[in-house]
């Protein structure tokens, strides 16, 4: 084992206490796990990501991720502590700070709702830091290309961190030996992004696209996730009887599987439940609460495109002038919506109830979620939107410049 790229811990080899190692996720390409470092100068928990070099598929690159994390210094982007190279079998391991709370855990909590005292402040602080993280990459001409709720975490002091730069695209190209060059600005890989966070242009086999505009779209979906309804699985008996009734009547709504399989629970419904019952529900079903997705991705790319167009409108020369240039844009015809398009206010019932804050959030989200990539609000511009005028009051005290801003 040897040092691959040194990070903030310098060129030292660190080992983990084997009794503390706990796996977090695993796939044929990589393993992510946590453990405690055995070293007199660095005693603490870390997150490790080990990638087998023979299993990498483009655009994934652990070499690129290590280099980017070592060179990018930003309060909202995770830092590289160190990285090691193992000869047999060939692999690279990144040592990263362990983030205490996944953002998904915060958003999926029944307590993250408008009638909680700290909801407005939390939403502003987390939202601004998410935007700041993406802008921190864009400022260095790096596009993340996999922005999603699951790639953000929060430290105990409230600082939000963006991680997983494995498929990031860098305008300047690679700068260390062994880093593959398989994408050019004129021929980018379109199989990037995750599920409902994928931008609409990726669904029509583009060879050329703006990777920074992808991040802007995905960021809009992440922020919209703050305000979608909370849902949880139905009890087994209720689900069975509901499906039986639906099957018998033939009134099965294929347009929204969530309506069949889940109960949508607004914040007012949660609060109006009997206190003891609510406590029991939280203990029994707390892990199952989740936010309903703004867009639907479980029916493949065509289904995702249809769910986007159902909300934002079918592409026209006015809405998206360059749509016809995509290779697959003419393979399917999407019918115009038969009625008026739903508003973001209707789709996001957990937006702050007070004005003008509610309208300011809608303005921000609407800017990110534009079909035409050229017209999307970019993170740098978003940081100066009116919704964030009071952000200094809500940032963590330890955040750079936060104390000065409050004085």
UniProtKB/TrEMBL annotation:
Pfam families: Pkinase (PF00069). Residues 238-248 have a biased composition (Low complexity). GO terms for molecular function: ATP binding; protein serine/threonine kinase activity. The keyword Cell cycle does not apply. Keywords: ATP-binding, Kinase, Nucleotide-binding, Transferase. PROSITE patterns: PROTEIN_KINASE_DOM. GO terms for cellular component: nucleus. PANTHER family: CELL DIVISION PROTEIN KINASE. This is Cdk activating kinase (CAK)/RNA polymerase II transcription initiation/nucleotide excision repair factor TFIIH/TFIIK, kinase subunit CDK7.
């Amino acid at each position: 084992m040897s040092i691959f790229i040194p990070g903030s811990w310098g060129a030292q080899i660190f080992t983990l206490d084997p009794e503390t190692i706990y796996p977090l996720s695993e796939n044929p390409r990589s393993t992510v796990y946590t453990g405690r470092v055995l070293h007199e100068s660095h005693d603490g928990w870390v997150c490790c990501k080990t990638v087998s070099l023979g299993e990498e598929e483009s655009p994934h690159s652990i070499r690129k991720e290590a280099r980017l994390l070592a060179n990018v210094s930003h309060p909202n982007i995770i830092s590289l502590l160190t990285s090691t190279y193992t000869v047999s079998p060939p692999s690279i391991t990144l040592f990263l700070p362990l983030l205490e709370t996944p953002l998904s855990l915060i958003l999926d909590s029944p307590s993250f709702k408008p009638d909680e005292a700290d909801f407005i402040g939390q939403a502003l602080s987390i939202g601004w830091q998410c935007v700041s993280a993406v802008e921190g990459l864009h400022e260095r001409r790096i596009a993340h290309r996999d922005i999603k709720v699951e790639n953000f975490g929060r430290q105990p002091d409230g600082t939000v961190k963006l991680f997983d730069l494995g498929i990031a695209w860098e305008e300047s190209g690679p700068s260390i030996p062994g880093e593959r060059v398989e994408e050019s600005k004129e021929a980018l890989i379109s199989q990037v992004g995750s599920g409902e966070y994928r931008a609409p242009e990726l669904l029509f086999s583009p060879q050329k696209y703006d990777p920074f505009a992808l991040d802007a779209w995905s960021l809009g979906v992440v922020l919209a996730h703050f305000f979608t309804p909370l849902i949880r699985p139905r009890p087994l008996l209720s689900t069975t009887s509901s499906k039986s009734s639906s099957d018998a009547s033939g009134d099965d709504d294929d347009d929204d599987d969530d309506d069949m399989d889940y109960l949508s629970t607004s914040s007012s419904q949660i609060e109006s439940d009997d206190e003891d019952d609510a406590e029991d529900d939280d203990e029994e079903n707390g892990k199952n609460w989740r936010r309903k997705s703004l867009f639907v991705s479980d029916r493949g790319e065509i289904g995702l495109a249809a769910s986007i167009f159902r909300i934002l409108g079918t592409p026209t020369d006015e809405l998206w002038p360059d749509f016809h240039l995509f290779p697959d844009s003419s393979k399917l015809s999407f019918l115009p919506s038969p009625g008026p398009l739903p508003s973001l206010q209707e789709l996001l019932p957990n937006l702050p109830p007070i004005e003008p804050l509610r309208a300011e959030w809608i303005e921000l989200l609407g800017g990110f979620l534009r079909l035409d990539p050229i017209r999307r609000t970019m993170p740098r511009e978003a940081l100066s939107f009116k919704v964030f005028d009071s952000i200094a009051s809500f940032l963590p005290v330890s955040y750079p410049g936060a104390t000065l801003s409050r004085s």
